[in-house]
């Protein structure tokens, strides 16, 4: 019997939660005789490669020990959400604070709107977008329930200190982001 995303989700969710991560997604793809099982996890502050490697070993051991999946042949990948990930929950937005995002939403009048901006302060109801229009910075509050689609984008720019401050980042995080290659 082929391994399913539902089986994996049920088996790994308690382990993922115990490690302080949220289980964002489980995807089973590829050929039935050797599928790829991708477990997507995230948490505040992210997870470095060593932490994800440890989690991967624990999940692999749990799947190998469970009667439903013990005999299944699969390739396991434990990963964090990356660029291009959809932002669908307040925690996704919060964890991407300061990152560049493309947002399609409806404005207060119900018309379609699009912004490429940085994610600023967020609460459970709305997000502040920090918009850089040729060096002129402004903010716009967008209700989360008005968002049609939002994805983190690849960002090759080096945002200004002022832009990152408007996003609500502290001095240490700003210094880290400004020094990144």
Automatic annotation (TrEMBL):
Ribosome maturation factor RimP N-terminal domain residues: 11-83
Compartments, as annotated in UniProt: Cytoplasm
Top-rank taxon, per record: Bacteria
Gene3D superfamilies assigned to the protein according to its UniProt record, in alphabetical order: RimP-like superfamily, N-terminal (3.30.300.70)
Pfam families linked: DUF150_C (PF17384), RimP_N (PF02576)
Principal subcellular localization: cytoplasm
Role this protein plays: Required for maturation of 30S ribosomal subunits.
NCBIfam families (UniProt xref): PRK00092.2-2
Family: Belongs to the RimP family.
Name of the featured protein: Ribosome maturation factor RimP
Native source organism of the sequence: Gordonia sesuvii
Lineage summary: Bacteria, Bacillati, Actinomycetota, Actinomycetes, Mycobacteriales
Gene: rimP
């Amino acid at each position: 019997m082929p391994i399913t995303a539902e089986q994996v989700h049920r088996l790994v969710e308690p382990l993922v939660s115990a490690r302080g991560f949220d289980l964002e997604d489980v995807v089973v793809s590829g050929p039935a005789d050797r599928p790829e099982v991708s477990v997507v996890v995230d948490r505040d502050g992210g997870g470095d490669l060593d932490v994800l490697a440890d989690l991967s070993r624990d999940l692999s051991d749990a799947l190998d020990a469970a009667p439903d999946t013990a005999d299944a042949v699969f390739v396991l990948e434990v990963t964090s959400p990356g660029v291009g990930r959809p932002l669908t929950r307040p925690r996704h937005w919060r964890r991407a604070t300061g990152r560049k995002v493309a947002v399609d939403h409806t404005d207060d009048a119900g018309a379609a709107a699009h912004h490429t901006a940085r994610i600023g302060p967020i609460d459970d109801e709305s997000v502040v977008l920090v918009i850089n229009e040729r060096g002129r910075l402004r903010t716009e509050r967008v209700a989360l329930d008005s968002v049609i689609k939002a994805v983190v984008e690849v960002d090759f720019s080096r945002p200004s200190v002022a832009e990152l401050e408007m996003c609500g980042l502290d001095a240490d995080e700003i210094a880290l982001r400004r020094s990144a290659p």
